[in-house]
Amino acid sequence: MCIAIPKKVIKIDKVKNIAVVQDNDAEIEVNISLIESLNEGDYVLVQSGYATQAMDEKEAEESLSLWRSFNQEEK
User: Fold this and answer.
1) CA–CA separation, 14 vs 43, rounded Å?
2) Which of 16, 29, 36, 74 is the one with CA 20 to 30 A from 52?
3) Domain range for residue 46?
C-alpha cells in the first residue's frame, strides 16, 4: 500500500508535461500528463513520479494535518 502526500506545485512546463513540486526541503519534477487542469500553487498527489490527482489548498492542508498527527504519534 502506498500513501500519497500532497505536494505543492511550484512551476509548470506544459510543453514537457512536467511540474516542479515542493517535497519537504527539495523540489522535484513530476509528470502531469494524467491531470487535465493544473495551476501553480495547486497541490497534487504523486505516485511513482506521476501526479495522479489535483487538490485545492484546503484539501491538501487537511491531509497534511492528518499526516503530521500520525507522525507525532509515532515519536
Assistant:
1) 16
2) 74
3) 7-74
